[in-house]
Amino acid sequence: MIINTKNLLLKTFSKSLVNQDYYNWFNDHDVKKYIKFKPKNIHDLKKSVDKIIKEKNSYFFAIFYKSTHIGNVRIHNINKNTNEAWLGILIGNKLFRKRGYSKEVITFIQSWLLKRQIYFLKLGVEKSNVAALKLYQKCNFQIHQKTQQHYIMINKIFLSKFILGAAQFNSKYGVTNFNRKNMKRSETNKILNYLSTKSSINELDSATNYKIDQKNLDLLKKKIYLNTKILTTEKISYSKLKNFFDQANTNQKITINTVFIHDGDNVLTRKGIELLNKLKKLKKNKKIMKVGLSIHKYENLLSIINKVSFDVIQLPYNFVDRRAEVYFSKLKDKNIEIQVRSIFLQGSLLTKVSTNKKLSVIFEKFNQLSQNKHINRLRYILSFILRSRYIDKVIIGIRDLKELKQINNINFFYNSVNALNKLKSSDQKIINPLEWKELVLDEKKSIKSI
After folding, report:
1. Domain check: are 51 and 173 in the same one?
2. What distance in Å separates the CA atoms of residue 383 and residue 372, rounded to the nearest whole number?
3. Residue 295 CB neighbours (<10 A)
4. Which of 155, 182, 209 is the last residue of a domain?
5. Backbone angles phi, psi at 429, to 5 degrees
6. I need a surface site. Which of 101, 160, 265, 435 has the fewest CB within 10 A?
7. The CATH number of the domain where 271 resides is what?
């Protein structure tokens, strides 16, 4: 197997690579200081490599810069039941250290494993290895366990699959917002600060009718990809859109990623096609990265897929509302990125909406099932969503910082979630939030707000 990263090649390790130059790595002072394995001679090294190559549930790659073997990376103890693996990396050729190649390889491996539904990556490091600790922290590893001399670190790479929804920010939006009060601006700022400093989620989902604003975004401490949505009913010229995104892109902490047609069901109308063409022109002129459709209904989705081209689709999906499943493979055949939203059914799967009888029945059934299986409801839902190989991104909505911390602190998922199939429904009074009298919607804003 040969894999290209930005500057390097990863090749399945071959015993033919065990030569004097490779052996000399293990006599280097910096390597000997922190690596347990100390081969006595090349024969001893070959025996060790042969054992590693034959290991099950592992990958062993040689790292090449052009034709030069500069290091190795090993992914081992891969466990599909717990969705985890362990990582070891060595840049043995000292001429290629401190060039950022370790970070490049680790970052690539994380996304590579994510596609294989490995959601937790662990490693061990000596406490005294300060340089390695800094590297791993830059790669979103956190200290998980401590021994007298070592740290066990974990990277929750599933978080890079998540997008934080901004519909609740500074807003009263939501069916579980029982007191009908706006989220305080101070709470929004706390969430964004935590996102910037404690979480590896790096994408926000917004819209022109959401209440997140530039003052909130100015508080970000790391680079964030921002998605937004525009309605076909908004009369916006191309020049106005261009000026808007030109201004948005001046923020050094924000990259405008995907712009969606908010009412994507209407994309085949005259106004829909006009807006789609404007967004494609913005993409061509590098004002935005991708063009997307946000879908609420499914009646004409097949026609949309066949008649127009776009990069990303956003769909409602959860274990109750399973309508999207029949379209997943068709969307992937068109190379369309799939984002799912409403995974908690607007929060009604986590908090009982007592005033809505049908939602209450679903909640009680799910709650009973969770208790019988001794499974936390939040983890149960995320385990169900993440089991799909089709879903690229997951939008999560929260009402306060505590809820974001709960998601950020998850350390494992469940593989057996088939019992949730029993709660599947096609009842619009259940799966369509616009049918609920309890749903609180905010007023629409202009394009001047992100």
Report:
1. no
2. 17
3. 23
4. 155
5. -70, -15
6. 435
7. 3.20.20.100
The pLDDT tens digits of the residues spanning 325-347 come to 999 999 999 999 999 999 999 99
Place of tokens 């590297």: 135
Residue 30 has pLDDT above 80, yes or no: no
Report which of 181, 178, 114 is spatially closest to residue 346, judged by C-alpha positions: 178
Please check whether residue 441 lies inside any domain of the structure.
no
- Give the three-state DSSP class for 197: helix
DSSP 54-110: T-SS-EEEEEEETTEEEEEEEEEEEETTTTEEEEEEEE--GGGTTSSHHHHHHHHHH
Tell me: do 115 and 193 sit in the same domain. Answer: no
Distance CA 422, CA 88 (A): 42
Q: How many domains does the chain have?
A: 2
Residue 48 domain flag: yes
pLDDT per position as a tens digit, 233-247: 988 899 999 998 988
Whose CA is closest to 450, among 277, 172, 217?
A: 217
Q: Which two tokens stand for residue 350?
A: 């986590």
Q: How far is CA 20 from the centre of its chain?
A: 42
- Within a domain: 342: yes
Distance CA 252, CA 375 (A): 42
- pTM metric for this prediction: 0.89
**How far, in Å, CA of 17 to CA of 315, rounded?**
48
Domain that holds residue 272: 159-435
Tell me the one-letter amino acid at 159. Answer: L
* Last-in-domain residue among 130, 155, 180: 155
| Distance separating alpha carbons of residues 186 and 390, to the nearest angstrom | 37
DSSP conformational letter for 157: G
